[in-house]
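User: Can you predict the 3D structure for this chain?
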Amino acid sequence: MKNQEVARIFFGIADYLELQGVEFKPSAYRRAARNIEGMSQDVEDLWREDRVGEIPGIGKNLAAKIAEFLKTGRVQVYEKLKAEIPEGLVEIMRIQGVGPKTTKLLYDRLDISTVEELREAAESGRLYRVKGLGPKKAKNILRGIELREAYVQRMILGRALPIAEGMIVYLKARAPIDQIAVGGSLRRMRETIGDIDILAASEAPAEVMLAFVGMPDVQEVLLQGNTKSSVILGNGMQADLRVLDGESYGAGLLYFTGSKDHNIRLRSLAISLGMRLNEYGVSRGDKQVAGATEEEVYQALGLPYIEPELRQGQGEIEAAHRGELPHLISLENLRGDLHVHTNWSDGHDTLEAMVRAAQARGYEYVGISDHSQSLHIAGGLKEEEVIEEDAEIKDLQGKMPDIRILHGAEVDILEGGRLDYPDEVLKGLDFAIGSIHSRFTQPEEEMTDRVITAMENEFLTILAHPTARHINEREPIALDLPRVFEVATITGTALELNAGISRLDLNGAHARAAKEAGAPLIINTDAHATVGLDQMKFGVGQARRGWLEAEDVVNTRSLAEFQAWLDR
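Assistant: Here is the predicted structure, written as structure tokens:
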């Protein structure tokens, strides 16, 4: 529970410092916030054990702020910044196409401090009074406001799931609960979440409800009843808890997991069989025939169990009838992670720390892929630094024979599809990942040609985060994905399902289309710290939404098989 609160404060401090034009510190706060929110351990437990310094990115200064929050519930620096800087500027800064410098310019020159004031200035032409803010910029800003409003009520999966999991741990420790699980779109691993649904079975529902409304992060209680309660959390998100009896728990979990289309199809199927299905169970007349588990509900309807990620109303029931449901990939199927950054570029942890963390997760191989030279903001490696990193990798490999360390690079795809290193450098690597990190607004045909030209380079192994989106922050690039999928089947370029919580790119729908086209796929974390390796589960979630099986993903292969694929 405390992880998310600390992370939220650190993200807030970073935003305010960036608005003030402070350099370096915002990145440090954001890095620490990402690491804290991605941890499986409770930051409060680490603090009590005097181990906060073990968290990547936490030095003495940030450790002191964590301690201050855990002792007092406040961080003085954060409160001071909030008092000095209008809150609306943070929202303006987050609009696509604006950023901190433009936000400060708007405030200093036009006294704009809210999104509504910005909208009025863009629509009226008042923005034009500032040099560089003409009609095109105003149009882009209005589009950014529109996108922000469309997403503002939805939280990304990778931030919502740890909150929900923390709530479950809290409730199980404080109330008699027989069964408990997350439901809704969160259980289906949808990319963004509107609210948190939790289902529980208990013989003492009043005690469960009392614990729920008393959680530390609850800001407002909307409803407190015997079987349902709703609260608003500190981040503004709504969370709902329903408590059912054991005989109805499975049916309730199925119903409140959804999706709506999936549930409608199941109810129609029940009617065709002379039965009725609702959140309490399957009944024939006055007799309940199933409800305690999801498996028995599906069985009563003549279906095998359908995994939550497939429940999208997109052919899963028909596939179940035909006995053609996929055997979905699981986290345990992954043998390696090929998109891993170190402090050679913009990663936080050392090469050895990242490799040891990969080994601790049971991987047979790990791919080190620091940024290439043109990405200056990420400390991209010059050609001579690639050689130096290779020497360190070879030295470390000698000390760690039980995991294969592959040396690659995340190489920028430049104008026209040219890669950021010459072929002489690329052919000396074990693999190369191509990425779009610039000129995001190119027209679709131009962007598609750029990406395909890069894929046709014989040394490019993987296309990373193919649509280059940042969920809720930056739109996908204009890309003809079917054409990219087709080319991938010819070149053998693996298309990445980037598990980073702000990307999830390719998403589930794209992954399914790529699979149907016959394109090779790979799931990577794009980890910039050891804790980032734990985000693999979110990439697996998108793969499962895309009907992927282990055989569809190249890094489920053994080291020997994967090396053969690289050497193809």
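The radius of gyration is 25 Å. The chain has four domains: 2-151, 155-244, 249-322, 331-566.
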